[in-house]
Amino acid sequence: MARTQLTIIYAALQMYRADTEGGAPAALEELVPNYLKEIPSLEIPGYAKTNKSVVIKKMKADDISYFVRDTGGWLYVTDAGSKLYGKVFIDARTKYKDQPFFKY
């Protein structure tokens, strides 16, 4: 389910980028209502259901693992100087198919 929700946000971000010539929103909430009805909630076993996101405005290195706080919500990178600019991640270290959720 979490990977499906991630795919939904990825698709909305791609549509946003197409409409803004490659730009990314300052926050995931800017995708609502034009690209998403609402920010999808994550339901990961061991975490509370949430659709909250943390915006990462500045990255010292392109390593998302440094920002994982294991909240079970979303991480969204808005640092235009990062290779992860405009990408969204799941803020969870729990493994799914032998890989932590944040690596999807």
Strand content: 5-15%
Provide the structure class: alpha+beta
Measured between the Cα atoms of the first and last residue, the distance is 13 Å
Mean of residue pLDDT values: 94
How is this structure best described in words?
Helices cover 17% and strands 14% of the residues. The radius of gyration is 13 Å and the shape is globular. It has one domain (2-97). The protein has one helix spanning 2-19; strands at 53-56, 74-77, 88-90, 95-96, 99-100. The strands form two sheets. A three-stranded mixed sheet has the order 1-2-3, covered by helices on one side. A two-stranded antiparallel ribbon has the order 4-5. The protein starts with a helix and ends with a strand. By secondary structure, it is α+β, with helices and mostly antiparallel strands.
List the helices and strands and how they pair.
Layout: H1 2-19, E1 53-56, E2 74-77, E3 88-90, E4 95-96, E5 99-100
Parallel strand pairs: 1-2
Antiparallel strand pairs: 2-3, 4-5
What are the salient characteristics of this protein?
alpha+beta, three-stranded mixed β-sheet, 5 strands, two-stranded antiparallel ribbon, 104 residues, 1 helix
